[in-house]
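Subject: NLPA lipoprotein

B.,
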Amino acid sequence: MKKWVGKIAMGLALVLGLAACGQKKTEDKTINIGSMVSDVTIWRHIAKSPEAKKMGLKIKVTSFQDGVQLNQATLDGSVDVNAFQSYAYFQAFNKEQKAGKQVALGTTYLEPMGIYSDKHKNLKHIPDGATVVIANDAANETRGLELLAKAGLITLPKNFDALGKVQDIQSNPHHLKFKEAQDNTIPRLMKDADYGLLANTVAYEAGLNVLKDALYHEKVDQTTRKNVNILATAAKNKDNKAYRKLTTLYHKPAIQKWLTKKFGGTKVEVQKPISYLKN
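Prediction pasted inline below.
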């Protein structure tokens, strides 16, 4: 009997040992981070940084051109973690998914959206019937309208949500006329418009610094928390320890110092728990 108990104990120890090794192997592997535009540059820098090496994180960065494709690649396991989307975009994507969800691992930064103009120097004297170019994708259209409301140019209904549109505007005292377009075409279209609402990545690529060149821009506060960018992964990976270390790595002082210098302070650090975004 003792021999059988001993064999069973050894067998259990072997199984548990193999499971632990399997888990460690999974968490020690190279992490494939899918990213877009400037975030590709950021994570390629982080991947080569001494900080990543000290934390034992091996990172590969894969560049994408489309956010939906990147999120799908995250769900199907083609990439492990993605670094590109705001919490609002993440929510909108998850809402549309019938099979498979993503989870947020941690916060990274707020890229302030701004109101820009090639014709006007401020928002004090808005021409009646002024033309505003706004992004035609759900997340950025909603965000742009909320920024206009924060600036006092329009009002929105109390139930305005993450998929709100121009048609939902409650009052428009300046009779603003909206022209919807792909966000990366807005800088060019602004030449024939009064104002343009630019996501920071688009503004940065057009040679604009939101903190210096925008007439009005978002600040880090309760009203913009859903616009904070996050790291995300497939729900099945929510407890992966290595993936969760990426947030800590991102907020290392040396990484933040490089980011500030590289992007002129336009990647405003937000180091908050995910619960902050949900409140």
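The radius of gyration is 23 Å.

T.
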